[in-house]
Amino acid sequence: MRAVVIEKYGVVPEVREVPEPEVAAGAVVLKVEATGLCRSDWHGWMGHDSDIVLPHVPGHELAGTIAAVGAGVEGWQVGDRVTTPFICACGSCAECAAGNQQVCPNQLQPGFNYWGSFAEYVAIPYAQVNLVRLPDELDFGTAAGLGCRFATSYRAVRQVGKVEAGETVVVYGCGGVGLSAVMIAAAAGARVVAVDTNPAALQLAAEYGAVETLSTTVGVDLDAHVTFDALGSNDLVQHALRVLRPRGRHVQIGLLPSGVQLDVSRLIGQELQWLGSHGMPAHAYPEMLDQVAQGNLNPAALITRTITLDETPAALAALSDGTPAGVTIITP
């Protein structure tokens, strides 16, 4: 199969022929119909993830058709249209038993722990607990974005941040995750403020429901109930905590490879909450898919660019100069 292969961190990868993945017991192999280009892939390419072993194929948000079914996988067959969370949970540990597959200690992540979806085929382990059947009316490009950015934002907004109608929500960083959070929070009835330095991203945020768009919150009194860092920046975290009202909630979605400094005195004195959010388990997808089917959420609108596998290496490298507005989908 053809795949994007990273040989050295920070060096533009190449598209070349590599062996197709074999189907293991309990797993399936998918023909990748669409996969998203995410900033997490950039972090992996830069060497920020200790799980990656070179050479490596990135890609972790995907949708496709089942090409092979391993022993012990029941209820699924070749040709089924599916997506999967980027966190492939084991399904047998205490966290999985409690429904918290997104923090499974035995999790495997395509594009990080093993070769991912910037390829024509990808393996999905623990398939029984990680596959999500796609509605026929949902196209593969839209479905691919659900596996990481949109699903991650859905859980961050609705289940971790617990955003309610009438609350003021500030979203920092309007890449794919941030724009998804804007759309989902607005659909929940919140007053959403979007913050980004990219005018094109702010324009999209306004289209997706933000009532106010800002290039910075320095000197701005927002009195927010909930803030989200959807990019991953120490500076943004400080801004996010400063605009919170007493007993406000901050949800951290963006990765912080260089760490972060917190004003713990303010955190304590104002009884602020610092919350982490990491993906969403497969069993929680039906609620989100129902919202999409009812027209309350429109993840297809987030897609602003579709590229080929051959265009992917340059697009991945270009993330070093900033995240383009909207979501980029790759069709292998």
UniProtKB/TrEMBL annotation:
SUPFAM superfamilies cross-referenced by the UniProt entry: GroES-like, NAD(P)-binding Rossmann-fold domains
Source species taxonomy: Bacteria, Bacillati, Actinomycetota, Actinomycetes, Propionibacteriales
Family, similarity comment: Belongs to the zinc-containing alcohol dehydrogenase family.
Name by which UniProt lists this protein: Zinc-dependent alcohol dehydrogenase family protein
Swiss-Prot/TrEMBL keywords: Metal-binding, Oxidoreductase, Zinc
InterPro entries in the cross-refs: ADH-like_C, ADH-like_N, ADH_Zn_CS, ER, GroES-like_sf, NAD(P)-bd_dom_sf, Zn_alcohol_dh
Pfam families: ADH_N (PF08240), ADH_zinc_N (PF00107)
Cofactors that this protein relies on: Zn(2+)
Domain Enoyl reductase (ER), residue spans: 10-330
